[in-house]
Structures are given as C-alpha cells and as structure tokens.
Amino acid sequence: MAGGNGRPVVLFLALLAGLWASAARAAEPLVADLSRHLVAITTGFAGTDVLLFGAVEDASRGGDVVVVVRGPNHGEIVRRKARNAGIWINSGLAEVRDAPSFYRVAASKPLAEIAPQAVLERHQIGLEALDLDIHPRDERADSPQYRDALIRLKQRQGLYGDGVQDIGFLGNRLFRTEMHFPANVPVGTYLVEVYLMVDGEVASAQTTPLVVSKIGLGADVFDFAHQQAAAYGIIAILLAAGAGWAAAAIFRK
Question: Which keywords annotate this record (predicted)?
Fold first, then answer.
C-alpha cells in the first residue's frame, strides 16, 4: 500500500526535476506545465482539480511566482433588484462586455508584497486589478456597484476565487499549486498565465492553454440543441407530451 500511495508523489517530483533540468539547460528563468491540458466534462462530471507545476532559476534570489487562470470572455447582464410594494422587481441593469467566465489567482506571497498596484493592473493580476468593461443602464447605481455585484455573483457560483491561493515551493526552485474547476465550469479555451516577479516587475512569463470541453452523449445533445434549436425544441415538446400521456395511461389502470 505504501508503495502505491507514494507513486504519484515520485512521479510529480520526477516531472518537476525534469522541468528544472530543462530550464537549466535552456537558461530559462521560468518553466511551467499542467498535469493535463484537457478537462473533459462527461455526464457525471462533478468538478476536478488541475495541477500546475514548474521550476524557477532560483527563488532564493528574491523572485516570486504568480499564476492567473482566465476562462473565455463572455458578455454578462447584471440586474439590480429593488423592493416595490413588498415585491422584489428588476429596477436596473448593466451590460458587462468581455468578462472572464472563470478567474482564479495563486501566488507565493500576498500580491501587495509581490508588485505595486500599477504592475498588477497592467497584467490584470487579482480581482482588484481586473479590468471589466461595464455599461450601466441605471440612474441609481454606478459601474463600481455593478462590478462588485458581478464579482459576488461569480464567487457564489464558484467561478471566481474568493482570495489568492498559495503556491508551494519544494526547495528554492520547484513549485506547485492546484486549481479547482467546479461542475458548472464553462466550456472553452482557458489561459493559464505564470509570472516570475522580481523586484516588483515581471522578469519572465509563460502562457499555457487549457481546454474545457464536453464529451460523450452530453456533448452530442449540447451541440444538437445549439445547432438545431428548432428541431431540439420540437423533440423536447414531443417527449414531454409522450411522458405525460404515458403517465396518464398508467394511472388510469
């Protein structure tokens, strides 16, 4: 049993050692990779973790590592509700253009200790530095209020991180962190950005794609529903009607 449990650890250390050796041979200050580049969403998908690992030239010289995972951008509509005569109704909205559908950050230190705010904003590292294009259609609420509302909504859905995750170091060179993808993770191509920060500036950076995709029967149904919406609607109505007729026939008996 002990040998079986230790095998993943040995494999992980071997991967990290290989990355570090490659970085040393190529004189690269930063090398990183993912445990897998495809998150496959099947019928029973309940979320998963993806391991990011890598190596730096020497973290003891003052360098820090930051990882940003961004999902594909989508337009969003955020609505504000207000109570009117005891009933909650929509009283305003804002259009958010090109908002990341997924956003998480990990770092070896608190972001404020790694780089000044101007540098974080330049690379959109951290929720406070995330640039969101918001257009309110509301006389009683402004862009910052809708921005905060969108972030709270995404956090409740598990799509935006509540804080900055830790990056663990093994020695002064090898590092690792795990990013969680919930069951409702949107499909598309994600960007995993890894930064080596030295003296408050980006010394090296690497971007790795990660694909989140539906596979199997669920993917076929999803594609059919989007490509043949009219036919899918008719089939859904017929199935619902058939199920209702069958249930009525069973109860008559």
Answer: Membrane, Signal, Transmembrane, Transmembrane helix
